[in-house]
Amino acid sequence: MASSEAVIRPYTPQDAAGIAELYNRHHDVPAWVDRELTPEMVLAEFAERGTVLFLVVEEAGEVLGTLGMFRACGMRVVPENEVIGSMFYLAPRIRGGMLAGKLFSLAFRTVRDQGVEAIRLTVNPSNQLALPLYRQLGCVVVGPAEADEDGDIEMVSWMPKIVTRLREEHGHLIPADLSMTAAWRYQADGIAGQELGKESELLQGRTVLRTALSLGELTFRAILDPDTGEILHTEVGAEPGPDPVLPPRPAGPAEPVFSHRSGRLNLTVRHSDGAVRVFHDDWVGPVLQETWPVFGPAYLTGWRQALRHRITVQPLPDGWLASERQPDGTLHRESRLVDGALYQRVWWTGGPAPYERLRTLVVNGLRSALLLDDRGYRPAGRGLYPANTADYQGARTRLRPGGAVAWWEPRTGLSARVHWSEPAEAGLVTDSLLALDHPSDYAYHVELHDADRPQQVLPLTGPAPDRGLALRPSGPLHEAEEDLTVEQAAWDDREVARRPVHRMVSGDHTVLLDAAAGGIASWQSAGKPVLGTPFPRARAFARNPRWRSGLWVTRQGTREDENHGLGWGSEADPVHWDFDPAAGGLGSPELSWSLAGHPTGITVTVRAQAAAQDGELVVWLTPTSPKAPELLVPGGPGEVWSLDKPGAWQRWTDRVAVRLPDGRWLATATQDPGSAQILVRSTPSGPLLALVARHPHGRAGSAHWPVSVLADADAAERYLTRQPHSRALSTEH
């Protein structure tokens, strides 16, 4: 059916059923969740997001497309003069025409007329359908150009603000026949053709973005700050004039942080947004985080980026009292850390409260923990269990009134249990994110203790298998250590596929190292492949647009970074690697890594020079395996869980085994559970492993990862149930 028959219009509540049906029918929608959406979920989502505008594409009474502009998206919230563009989708049968442009033209004009200055959005960097369109909208990358932990990059278009400025200063020069509803069509700056993340430049010590609109004989040029949208200079003319003298960028306000220590726990509050965090001396990142409570709906809050709040803090003997003055009264939260428990009390004083309920987001930081609830416990992870509703919180997993929810980390023994009761309502947005909706006068607490087994955290709990998660029968813990004795390896130079490579032979293992690709081009064990590689070419793998080898090494930002998290192994700028025959590996000015053989596989050793910021040394692997492989991970003491859930998901762990096509298993384990972890991802391209080790700033860093090929599932289970080297980490003095 021709797209010209389709109608674009604002949505009405009666469209909720059609929107739910559209999103249930197509799995490539931007906010897909692994459960059936209902009209009630759609309406709840629109209410909670602070919907500014939502458009539907209707054809013969059927909803076939959507585009929304919101104040919040669950993860982030933006100020009143900005919107988040989200839920852009066209059913396959109406793609390829002018509908996408018409959708954005109407949305652009509507939100601009409402005073919106910026449109923010996120996109998969490998999405070659949406990304070119967003570039034409004038969208530029905010922050890193590599995908964040959710697999997206953040972009912003300041085009509404630029067009408003153009109309204010030079409206009389705009030709009468130009409506400017699709202002991006008049861009003359070439942003759409520039390399992703390279749109801005450094001018007089400031990062700036140049943009230009060509309207007939009129060319309007602007220089602006791409982060804040501050317009620093405008001009009109056929040719650009000399660069202006720019004012220095004002220094950001200091961000006071109060802290209170109790034993090995440290409680902090951040003045800028009221976020509360609890840290443990031997854990990387916070073990628990809670956002400042906000009234709603709409619940304008986000666990990655929240609005700034004017918080005043009054110290207490075991915590503090934080208060936020609002037009009709004051919101208070008392936070106390006592005997390994965080006690929170919220109340309102003054006139009538703006709404009856508040929302607080509780974020578990024990990434590799088991999730405990009324049904029992199981390994959890984003998209693994429960359903990942980060992009569609209206579909979150609702807990029964007063229901139990806790996390227990097996290797360290650390745990966090949330105690809440009616009339509050709680729901799991992801495996580690709890949305707690409660009255304006309410108290709850979170126990933070160490435990030897999950039953000490949640009595009477037991294993609770789920779809794609099964507990395998296993015996007692194994004391035997794997033989990791370094074997003498022979290196020689070869040419494969007309590319120079360096070959290592150690026992049954043959490795080809490609310096040009920065990694392992091939690893064969007993003549059979261990790693999947694109050698000698490069292509996209999951959210990495340039996958070149089966094992490679990068230095990334910290895994707990709330704005980005751990990426996907891509690099902003290509690294030049040189082969070092003495070390048996690859080197660059800041980072080097080497290979050595051992009886069952290879050991990867990474070394890094001192850096200015904390980061992670990451070894990335793409095992040769089906796209929906079977993986084994440890659970409670002596337990091994099998994970074979289809679709995209991730799980943090300290040990993992991946089944290879020939029935053998590729296995690895951290040697330092205090600071090193493994991130396992199931992706449409296949499994992706990230072996992550902390690299503190200011000093050189190193990491050692043995990677083994094991004969069968029994050997893999023995590997995973070895006695851990680490002790339980106490929360007490």
From TrEMBL:
Q: N-acetyltransferase domain location, by residue?
A: 6-160
Gene Ontology CC annotations of this record: ribosome
Q: Does the keyword Signal apply?
A: no
| SUPFAM superfamilies in UniProt | Acyl-CoA N-acyltransferases (Nat) (SSF55729)
InterPro entries assigned to the protein according to its UniProt record, in alphabetical order: Acyl_CoA_acyltransferase, GNAT_dom
Keyword terms of this UniProt record: Ribonucleoprotein, Ribosomal protein
Q: Name one GO molecular function term.
A: acyltransferase activity, transferring groups other than amino-acyl groups
Q: Which PROSITE patterns match?
A: GNAT (PS51186)
Q: Which domain of life is it from?
A: Bacteria
User: What name is this protein filed under?
Assistant: Ribosomal protein S18 acetylase RimI-like enzyme
Which organism encodes this protein? Kitasatospora gansuensis
Ranked from the top, the taxonomy reads: Bacteria, Bacillati, Actinomycetota, Actinomycetes, Kitasatosporales
